[in-house]
Amino acid sequence: MIIAGNLLFEGAFEPGWLECADSRITRVGRGRFDGTPDLAPEGFVVPGFVDVHSHGGGGAAFTEGADAARTALAAHRAHGTTTMIASLVTATIGELLQQVEALVPLVVSGELAGIHLEGPWISPQQKGAHDPGKLAAPLDDAVTAITSLPPGLVRMATLAPELPGGLAAIRRLRAAGIVVALGHTAADYTLARRGFSVGASGVTHLFNAMPDLLKRDPGPVLAALESDAWLELIFDGHHVAAPLAAFICRRYAERVVLITDAMAAACLGDGDYTLGGLPVRVAGGVARLTTTGALAGSTITLAHAVANAVAAGVELAAAVRCATANAAAYLGISNVGRLRAGNLANVLELDASGRLLRVLA
Predict the structure, then answer these.
(1) What is the pTM of this model?
(2) 1-47+337-361, what's its fold?
(3) Domain boundaries 49-336, corresponding CATH code
(4) By CB atoms within 10 Å of each CB, which of 92, 143, 186, 297 scores lowest?
(5) Which residues are catalytic?
């Protein structure tokens, strides 16, 4: 039994308790419990973090196969991320299908909650750290190859709606049960709105790899903010300035999804790495392509993201929600992200600053 002075119920901390058996939460209650000493008397008990956009960690990338994926998963789990989606970067459809096939056993076993294709259906003008030689439009055969995969395997795809066939691809992917996030896009405001109207339900790392929000050309940022889409946000202080990221978290707390966009260097340190075959140098914790200087994902964990958000003025409960319940709802994963009976027993203890103290279950 886990008994805590501060247990996260729907959006607020209260004294409470929960019981776990067979890797599930069996009972949850408010208040004290029979005078039993608290397991976490000073800490804040929250659900395990849910990362819907990560490329790896611990020196390994999800593109490198099952063993590497398990290395990345273990590295992030040690930092409180108990549910992860494997994000694959731009490659040919044939290469992506091979990478997906290598991860099938981990999805079947529940080690991975699914796969995210961040590319190749992205804009050459907003490619970021993706291989420009492998970018492609979402044409019929490629979309069919993905939608024909077993349901639940590919859970999400990032797509630039301005590409040939872009809007039709959004409709087809959504019809197949795949979440579509607009991202790595040069779309203007009007076209981005159309993308959301035909089925896109999220935006890949808001503000990054898209036109800036300008007073006469608000672009996809305003289209995303005024929609009901989920807003992915990298809270590392480099991709988005901390005051702006904190404002978005506070203003759109019910829709923000904290992500890491982590690459292999997460949970390790500075040095030379690769991302999708492209050379990356990490210096001072910031990952950049050695060829163009473009940001190449991040090196943070969700534990870092939550602590960064709290340090920037976001309430702890709201920051946690953005890394748990919102993330699970974004991809329709119902058994994680909240401390409630029937959910997986993924439980963490944080301090008041959002720093991870320990993984309780």
Answers:
(1) 0.96
(2) Urease, subunit C; domain 1 (2.30.40)
(3) 3.20.20.140
(4) 92
(5) 261
